[in-house]
Amino acid sequence: MTAVTHEPSQPSGDFSDNDATAGRLLLGLLRSLAAEAITDELYDDLETVLGEYAVPASPAETAAIANRLRQTATKLTDVVPRLTKTYPVDQQRRAMHQLRTAIDLSAEQPAPENSHGHLVRFASSLLTLLDHLGDAAS
Prior knowledge:
0% strand, 5 helices, mainly alpha, elongated
């Protein structure tokens, strides 16, 4: 017969409960969330709209890009406030202001004749937001 004893588990030396470790873990998780929103496809769309050789896209392509940018803006509403929490106050305010601008533009539904200009403004606002996020956006 086998005896069963209860021994309290002891954490191994690999774990720590200090604030520095928790902060690094949180930053890693936040960057992971940011990576879900800030993709190579986003940068491709920004290049298509704002690049040096950008030309107005077809109405169908404009609508597709605008939809992808809207999805990105929605994802960033969860990420940006958390990522910028440790930023200096003025930098945090600028990032949050730019996020609100992007969200406002994402809610607009321009007439077809105004869709290209709207797309350029929307893409520019997201690019500026990424600039405010700095290394966290890469």
